[in-house]
Amino acid sequence: INPANFGVGECDQFNGGVGHKATILPIQDESLCLDGADTTVSIVADSLTPIGGTFEISYGHGSSMEVSTGTSASEMKNILSQMIGANVDVTRHHHDDMGVGVAWAVTFPGTSKNDRLQVVDTFVTGRNAKVNAYPVLTIETFSPENDSSGDFRIFIDGESTAPLSFRASQKKILQEMHRLDGIGKVNMLGPADGDALSLLDLSALVDDSFMSEGLKAIAVVGDLTSTFAKGDQLIVGACDDLEIHGISHENYDGTQSAGYLYESLYSTSPETANAKKLGYTIMQIKPSDVTLSFAVDCTQGDGVGESIQAGSVLDTDKGVDHSMIVKSYTANLDAVQIVPERNWRGTAPRIFFKPPSGSASHAFELSGIDDIGRIIVRASARNSQGFGPFSDPLAIDPAST
Fold first, then answer.
1. Distances (CA, A) of 13 to 5, 22, 25, 42, 264
2. Phi, psi (deg, nearest 5) at residue 55
3. What secondary structure letter does DSSP report for 5?
4. 323: left (phi > 0), else alpha (psi -120 to 50), else beta?
5. CA 259 from centre of chain
6. What are phi and psi of 82, to 5 degrees?
7. Please, are residues 49 and 99 in contact by the beta-carbon 8 Å criterion?
8. 0.70 exceeded by the pTM?
9. Which residues contact 174 (CB under 8 A, 6 or more apart)?
10. pLDDT tens track for 100-131
């Protein structure tokens, strides 16, 4: 948008003031699913040692069926289809919350909150082995051009996380969820069998002389505190066993910290120009042995735009899947809201989310119209504040009755 066009042409003229500017804000546009949304749960088998044996699954008041801990996704789908119906989908996931485990993510049409998947794990083997069914909170960012940017917050029962990047690492998502009073234990669902997590590619200032609070560190232009968390994996050169020990954002200061390196060594670099505008994120490194040498141990030379990788996300090619298994909670998970921040940008960027219990179908049937010809229908949305304006009339001519 050319600012020179503000207040001219077909727009109303500005009345006084100087330095007018436009502000772009995200819109919370909620899509209504005509057929409702499926219930999503995860059957999780956990153990401290290799897990084996069998467990029983039942649905509602129906009979139970025996399932092996080695059951594939397709086998689990066949078993559950016999209990629930044809519209069941199952994916199998690696799960290492306790040490060794597996999770089956199950989606199916929810008919009643009284109809739940139930598990009896008497015959499961392994140290502290257990099998349970947990709700899954589904969150996914999306853009047709895969160019989303910005942050969002998760609201549950009146509580809110701090801003989370559209590509926040799994550890960052878990860190923020565990800060909510109504959430006790959460794990990421993660990739299905055959898929893998991705690391995020970054451009960093790497210098063997750079230390932060006595720890080896690197710097990345911009504020990445909503993207990464302590414990995230960090790859620098050939060193792929590093972790982020601490992370913080600083405004540019050419007299100290990373700013001194930008200013004294790379003053004409585009990275330095961006750092002056956006500041930089300091990532302290673990292990923090001061004898660690990027050049010697990691075959990584000093530089201002060096390629590194950090964090772990489930990339969908159009965004990131942040779905998670909620193992213990007191909050009402069906009251979740995902709200984008003011910096939400991209080509038609969206956040799709679905509470564990799904939602009922919004379809309806018209009956008793045997002797009626054309029917005129108008729709109106309703929320806690009442009804919205009616839609344009829709004419329906029944072909048969």
1. 10, 14, 22, 57, 48
2. -140, 165
3. G
4. beta
5. 32
6. -70, -30
7. yes
8. yes
9. 186, 187, 188, 229, 324
10. 999 999 998 866 566 789 999 999 999 999 99
